[in-house]
Amino acid sequence: SMPILLSSARASEAQTGDSAARREQQTRIIGEAYLALLADTAGAAAAGDTFTIADALRSQTVEHALAASSARATASDPALADLARHEQDAQKRIIALQNMLATQLAQPTGAQEEGAVKKLQREIDRLHAARSRIRREIEGKFASYADLVEPKPATIEQAQQSLRLGEAMIATFLGNDRIFVWAVPGHGTPAFAATKVSYKEIAGAVATLRRAVDPNASTLDDVPEFDLAAAFRLYEWVLKPVEAGWSGAQTLMIVPHRVLGALPLSALVTAPAAVPPKGALPFANYKEVPFLLRKLAVAQLPSVGSLATLRSLPPPGGRESFIGFGDPWFNAEQAKEARAGEIESRGAPTAQLQSRGVKLVRRAAPPGEGIDLSQLPRLPDTADEVRSIALVLHADVAKDVILGAAANEKTVRTMNLADRRIIVFATHGLVPGDLEGLTQPALALSAPEIAGIEGDGLLTVDKILGLRLNADWVVLSACNTAAGAGAGAEAVSGLGRAFFYAGARALLVSNWPVETASARFLTSDLFRRAAENPALPRAEALRQAELALIDGPGALDAASGRAVFSYAHPIFWAPFSVVGDGGAAIASNR
Question: What is the DSSP letter of 43?
Fold first, then answer.
């Protein structure tokens, strides 16, 4: 029954280590069978029940991070908000210690460190007691706190109530043998479909498209063709069966599941198409492709309930418009060149592509010296990008643009970021394994020896969790910033979870290594449009900036001004996704 299934889903969240993974897999298998049974026996009439069950079954770490920060923001008393943060931090610490304890207990009896086990147990007990005291104090003053930090699975009616005119929500659930999709319009009748297509087929189509946009290309000839047949197949499996529920919308809010979070659905193709013949300008033939982007704007949600959570937050006030970090220096040679004014040409060379997050040669860091950032290439374009955004938002470029040696982890962790509406990081995004010794997703900032600070130069998930933000939008103009925690993890689980927990209301993240010149054009144009039209929704501003890249002149040679190649291939225009309330506008501080 549904109560048993939801109880099972909640129980899986309380587990740690291998037991949690096994319990989650068992719950998913049982849940998928129940969803299929309801779909087969009740058809469209099962839309409501299946919607709520699927919401309970999806992994919810990003939702919980967002709910935690929202609970703090909703607390009217700043001291109460601080108490809530202490309670949430204690819970995070308890989970980390429980994982450490599970690792110790998994060792053979003779290999266990008895003293370490007892110390971990004592610390866990102490934190549990402290957290209980804080929780009682909070709930005595803030009765709705428990409902905010432990959101219940959403109903289809609640989802519809959170939408505005012109919006529709697409919720997905990928089973092993079927894909379940719900299209909920802001007004009108929801649509539901359970299509018999295997997870292997869907994952294969996503992998095919990912190979075209994340090929580790260094030259134009290395960029593969985007498989339009695979893009249309995904459209037929995901969106076409529920078209009646979203066809009138201007903005789609997508709740992706499993591998669907690895590909912006704006790059799907809405009609059968083959790659048009190549012309004189590389990639210009993609201008004729009927991408979904041509029809409407697309945003991504961490969960169904997150939209209602975001839209119920009290509007913060009294903040500066912007702070941006870019062009960090990773070795002494880069610092020397930058200080001497030896900036590379802003034009895109004919034969090379520079990306933020290039595939790196792994080096073994010398013992005791930590992670080595010196191999990372400098990204001077990011300085122009951050300055351009600052100018269109009427920020103080001298004060609000942090570049070079100053763009370091100490600056980020010690300055007051809670008074900024928009925060931009334009640098390399790294995932575990990109550098020897890197075990968490991270943003690369200036090397400590260049900045003259302690640390390793990385803004990792653990450090982001310690930040205190009150930001309408955090822009991660890097690469792989949407990467999850592993195979099957929900989208945006790494850096995104951390920034939502820290207090972001929306994110702009990337799904693969971005080409640096097109990324600069895209983000600068996005904020220019938002500044010129304060009522423009985030997702629509991104859509217009992406269309401008597709239909524009492309990359220009710095010397001659002639077009070198077009930006119409999805590798250039499609990497970024709006995560959060894509229907909200970003008004400039004029």
Answer: G
